[in-house]
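Project standup — Tuesday

K.O.: blocked on the structure for the chain from last sprint. Re-posting the sequence here as requested.
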Amino acid sequence: MSDPQVSQVTLADMNQQQLDLAKKKLSGMQGAEKLEVTPLDLNDTAAASRLMAGFDAVSRRFLTGPLARASARQLRPKSLWLT
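H.V.: unblocked you, prediction finished:
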């Protein structure tokens, strides 16, 4: 988040309490104003694909099966996969 080339960091999870906790924990870090949280059920591949479509980088740590294939289609050609 502190990298000046990073304009936005979004955390997505279906558990709003976890999102709120993560945002609070990261709020003291440099670049925290770039952090956004959004509720997302990864079983909803259409919603997840729409969210990922707007980003240059996506962490694939939890992306498997149909969601991984959907994310690969949605990401821009020069995207970076973070692990």
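K.O.: great, moving the ticket to review. Residues 16-26 form the longest helix (11 residues). DSSP finds three helices and four strands in the chain.
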